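Q: What does the assembled structure look like for these inputs?
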Amino acid sequence: MKRSWSMILVVAVPYLWLAAFFLVPFLIVLKISLSQTALAQPPYLPVLDLAAGWRGLRGFVTALSLEGYALLFSDPLYLFSYLKSLAIGAGATAILLLLGFPLAYALARTPQPAQGVLLVLVVLPFWTSFLIRIYAWMNILQRDGLLNGALQALGVVDAPIPWLATDAAVMIGLVYSYLPFMVLPLYASLQKMDTALLEAAADLGAPAWKTFWLVTVPLARPGIVAGSLLCFIPIVGEFVIPDLLGGSQSLMIGQTLWIEFFGNKDWPVASALAVALLAVLLVPIVLYQRQQMRALEGGR
Amino acid sequence: MVRFEDVSKRFGATAAVDRLSLDIFPGEFFALLGPSGCGKTTLLRMLAGFETPDEGRILLDGSDIAAVPPHRRPVNMMFQSYALFPHLTVAGNIAFGLRQEGLPKTEIAERVGAMMALLQLGRLGERRPDQLSGGQRQRVALARSLVKRPRVLLLDEPMAALDRKLREETQFELMDLQARLGLTFVIVTHDQEEAMKVADRIGVMNHGRLVQVALPEEIYEKPNSRWVADFIGDVNLIEGRVTVADADGVVVEAAEGIRFQADATDGAKTGETVWVALRPEKIAIASITDGKRADALYGEVLEIGYRGDVSVYKVRLDNGLVMKAAAANTMRRVAQPFGCNDRVVLSWARDAVAVLTR
Ligand SMILES: Nc1ncnc2c1ncn2[C@@H]1O[C@H](COP(=O)(O)OP(=O)(O)OP(=O)(O)O)[C@@H](O)[C@H]1O
Ligand SMILES: [Mg+2]
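A:
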């Protein structure tokens, strides 16, 4: 293939973008994570002094330390935050999958004009600000909010339940916010499926539930993997939803990070937390990439 | 074995199957023949359980199967689109049905292996459907439905994508298998030759109805209507009026003044409009050697269609009628016995003439 300048440009722009706004900041964070706190501006040491030349660089490198990372292991608070984030991420993803699969399935089987309308409805929430929608949930979940009002009116509960500032509220917010990210990839893979395959399975003697496990689920696997990772990865690092809907007694990693940065002004530990989070999420991210590559190859 | 009783199936305004009744006998190889869109697939899908008839009943061994779901029917279908499972290997596809029966692993492996050998899929067991050629896919689909040894096997154009040689082999394998296992086969095909070759009986369908159900020879030699005569094989159809109709035979006079003599025919009454059907291969074509004969027809060759084993000559008779006559190419030579514009004489035996009243 001949490479023209316009093609190089088209490829180079996104890479330059990523280099400038992802790689460089990441390197800075990585560097800060290897520094030590200081009462200074910026609040860490060492600072690279290029004017000092070679000696300055050597002094800089020797002053770097792994203390920030050592701190992560010394305080169980951090480990707890990670585990909590992973647990919430896994739980929310499981609920999303259970809710999203039937939704996507019904969507893919709806006859055409209606299917398009329903699909628009799935992405409709994106038309309002994410923050506003979470504030709306705060309103719904508060003590005298809509949810408690409805439950009391129906006679399900006598006294209002404290929803806000609980993990349940975080879960509700997460599931609500991430549902489209689960439904859309599932819908895409279910929609491609040939219904004749379901008939063939029935014809060969498989009852409906077996057809579901032996044919539908395996064929929807790319969608299941893509949807799950697309939800799990950002949920683990989620900050806004747990901060606004969750309590302060047990924090997710995003909140811990925020506190270290802005509360304790401990930039090195906060950076170490961020780097460690990335390391933890690298596994599912790589899995997701591989799945996408395979889907592309198989798609033909 | 299988009985359709006044079965209808409508999609919106179109009746895909229209008050159709049919009996298929145990151990029979039944072929459904008909133009595209006449309802063949719909008929099979109703038997397999994927469509419910709007009217009428379908009986299997004398009992109505309306309430039996597809996965419990002792009927298997080979889909026109194959419908192979893309996530399973060839062997996995073929084994799918046997696994549903809960057979022991060794028996499954044995039967799958035998079926793959039969359909020459030997070395493809670990491939996935998207790594196969069209013909190979078709054989996998055939193997998958055949391996279950169903009471009734429905084959929706099972051999359309096979090359001629493999098709003939598969046809014989099918006939052999059907006879050996005593299964009942219903095959849908576009290929008349195939239907004639494999089937015990043929049903010719048009617009959701069965036009004629008969033995292959009867369908070909004694079509019950112009439409069947025209649909099956090549035919000269000539409109005429019955001038004589008695026990000795029928005489039909065509507009062009030709008189056709035929054996006595049911329903042909004097004065009625009928159609004479004459197959090209039953017309003898010869060059003019001696003088004019009263009972022969003279004409000029318009066009020659060379088909290898036979050549079809389009001849314009002196009275203006155009007829097709076929002659076997018994000699191995490149030059045809007759050329365009040659004068020829056509003749046929009296029993070659079929008189059709509708
Ligand atoms: N699901 C459906 N919805 C609407 N119309 C249908 C449906 N299935 C079949 N038809 C119509 O019913 C008629 C019969 O279709 P069918 O598939 O039985 O034809 P066929 O004889 O199998 O044709 P072919 O030889 O092309 O496979 C056609 O006119 C077709 O358009
Ligand atoms: Mg069909």
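Chain B has a mean pLDDT of 85.
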